[in-house]
Amino acid sequence: MKIYLNKAGESWVVDRFRQDWYKHNSDISTKSIFLSDSIWIISPWTWRNLPKHYLQKKLVICTIHHIDFKTSGSIEEKEFYKRDQYVDIYHVISSKTEEELKKITNKKIFKIPFWVDSSIWYFIEDKINLRKKYKFDDKDYLIGSFQRDTEGHDLKSPKLIKGPDIFLEISKNIYNKNKNLKVVLAGKRRNYLINQLELNGIPYAHFEMIPEKGLNELYNLLDLYIVSSRIEGGPQAILESSIVKTPIVSTDVGIAKEILHPDSIYTPEKFFKAKANIKFAYENTKELLIPQGMEKFRRVFLQDEN
Question: Reduced to 3 states, what is the DSSP secondary structure of residue 304?
């Protein structure tokens, strides 16, 4: 059995998943869709790039990262059902997405979180020199957000499912209590938060094109990582923060309840009651390290061969 993974081509986390898979599973994988027995649509929004005659003939597994049908009959809903006619099996990352997906399909669903690469995401003990490297003071209280927060069509409007407005309110409240606060942002499309932080006089640092090694260092120097999303598939930041032992709290999205301690899940109005539990999150996440984190996927694919 040989499986083919489609690509997002966006230098996004899904492309990294695809690269990881081929690196560690060459025995059951192929980069030729023609030679494949199965197609894994790991990037569902790009499914139309796949030749339809292959989708009709081969076993098709499709990852649904999250479901966001804004209204009944929306473009998102119509697109789901157009793709669904070619899908045999669904993969989801979290129980939340699984529950939503069960409402709209009777097809087989398997739930497995994505894996974590410990050669990229790891704990760094020397926090003092790490802060010096990035020009932060010891007294700085650093909170982080490494997800895009701005819609792509105008680079001004907030991407509300990611909750940048929630993150902003949290930042304002923390800053009112602690003037040593500095917000650490990474990645593209951070325009909304940057503009709002400047308007509110909240210090920040933005690392737009930072490589994975640098991003791991940013995780390690934080006092707290905050997930403020309203809707999520993962986010992978929960696993990355947890495996490097960075304190993290999150809204109740994606895999948050499956990885984090209940005390680490917050509602915006009760943010200050949330408590990061580093050990709890780390213990849950280490089970997803490569190669162990890929074994469940392999078992599913090989069973379907039989």
Answer: helix
User: Whole domain around residue 253: which residue ranges?
Assistant: 127-287
Number of structural domains in the chain: 2
Output 40 or 188, whichever has higher pLDDT: 40
CA–CA distance from 258 to each of 21, 213, 218 (Å)?
23, 26, 24
Same-domain pairing of 131 and 89: no
Amino acid, res. 264: S
Residue 247 counted as domain residue: yes
Task: Report how far residue 172's alpha carbon sits from residue 145's, in angstroms, rounded to the nearest whole number.
Answer: 14
**Which tokens belong to 226?**
């905050």
Residues 75-102 have a mean pLDDT of 93
| Cα separation, 221 vs 194, whole angstroms | 20
Tell me: do 91 and 162 sit in the same domain. Answer: no
The residue written with tokens 């606060």 in the block is 181
Per-residue pLDDT reduced to its tens digit, 272-292: 999 999 999 999 999 999 999
Burial of 199 by CB count in 10 Å (0-12 exposed, 13-18 middle, 19+ buried)?
exposed
Q: Is the pLDDT of residue 305 over 60?
A: no
Residue 121 within a domain: no
Question: What is the DSSP code (8-state) at residue 109?
Answer: E
Residue whose structure tokens are 């192929």? 30
Are residues 195 and 244 both part of a single domain?
yes
Per residue in 120-137, pLDDT (tens digit) is 999 999 999 999 999 999
